[in-house]
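INPUT
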Amino acid sequence: GESVGLHLPTLSVQEGDNSIINCAYSNSASDYFIWYKQESGKGPQFIIDIRSNMDKRQGQRVTVLLNKTVKHLSLQIAATQPGDSAVYFCAERTSGSRLTFGEGTQLTVNP
Amino acid sequence: EAQVTQNPRYLITVTGKKLTVTCSQNMNHEYMSWYRQDPGLGLRQIYYSMNVEVTDKGDVPEGYKVSRKEKRNFPLILESPSPNQTSLYFCASSLWGDSGNTIYFGEGSWLTVV
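OUTPUT
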């Protein structure tokens, strides 16, 4: 399944499928990008990050892709599990530690 | 254990009654910030502080005040709360300029203003 940036804030996938969550960022000067996961009733948790001099970075079951030309960021989750159900935020850093967050995408994994 | 602690976690208050949400971190971080989270708007920064006695406005500072008299504490003050300040608030801390994987968030404070 695939979300379409900020205009589709929900994504529903079947367990075991791959998920793709998209994010459009605003500032071409941003040098660092992060994906956070937020479970219900909790604060955001770091998932993966990428610097602006990279196009792709992989973690455990997650991959982040950065397309600076169109200012687009995506998070790919392989073999999505019920425990992956959460809201996912992208964030961009423009200076120092200041982060600007996207509105988030609610990912629901159906068993 | 490294943590950011917010209090209260849940609060219902009335319009105009001053309140303070406390935030404390035990990691000796220079940078602390407050965010509010609203449906469809994501996390928006209210105020941030780069160090003791240094604070600055974020994206939505109206109606809020902060102070940073000690490195570990960064209270959020609502002098005269209004219903549009009903929201979920998060405090966060990190080393200044550090990477996103070492930004620590508190567990959130649910505030309702009636």
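end of record. DSSP finds no helices and ten strands in chain A.
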